[in-house]
């Protein structure tokens, strides 16, 4: 799947920026964007969430890790900023390279239906972050996150279904 995103990386922002910004707006409206010091953007793509946060002054974080399995996407994300708090990482969510509960929040927007092992990915996000925000496409036939982890709850819908988990298991 990462190879497919390598091929579409150059056109991703043109095709999806408006839709993604709408999703980020929903997260912001729910009070789940900004105010976190250590942020993981799991499946960050070209770094649009980072751009959204900076544009709106929600960049009071100390560290922002932009993680994606696609080298092409990470290359574009890395070109967005010379901010030393911004750290681009090529890795799969299912094997997130971080210690337990290091991140205050992990966002995984528009990634759920592309994951090879959703259960493992969710477990990893819950392992490395205190708060987890996940979206699932509305036409998806994949199991929703609450089916894999009862601590995750649906918080609403805007283009995607939104889910959140907070606190320790």
Automatic annotation (TrEMBL):
Pfam families: Methyltransf_11. This is Methyltransferase. Residues 40-130 form the Methyltransferase type domain. One of its GO terms (biological process) is methylation. CDD domains: AdoMet_MTases. GO terms for molecular function: S-adenosylmethionine-dependent methyltransferase activity. The keyword Transferase applies. Keywords: Methyltransferase, Transferase. The keyword Chloroplast does not apply.
């Amino acid at each position: 799947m990462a190879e497919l995103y390598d091929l579409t990386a150059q056109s991703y922002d043109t095709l999806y920026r408006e839709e993604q910004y709408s999703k980020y707006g929903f997260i912001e409206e729910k009070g789940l964007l900004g105010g976190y010091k250590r942020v993981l953007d799991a499946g960050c793509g070209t770094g649009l969430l980072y751009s959204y946060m900076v544009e709106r002054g929600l960049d009071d974080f100390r560290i922002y890790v932009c993680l994606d399995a696609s080298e092409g996407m990470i290359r574009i994300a890395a070109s967005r900023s010379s901010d030393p708090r911004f750290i681009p990482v090529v890795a799969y969510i299912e094997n997130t390279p971080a210690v337990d509960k290091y991140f205050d929040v992990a966002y995984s927007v528009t990634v759920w239906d592309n994951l090879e092992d959703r259960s493992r990915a969710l477990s990893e996000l819950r392992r490395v972050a205190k708060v987890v925000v996940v979206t699932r496409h509305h036409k998806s036939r994949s199991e929703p996150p609450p089916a894999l982890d009862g601590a995750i709850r649906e918080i609403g819908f805007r283009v995607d279904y939104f889910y959140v988990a907070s606190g320790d298991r």
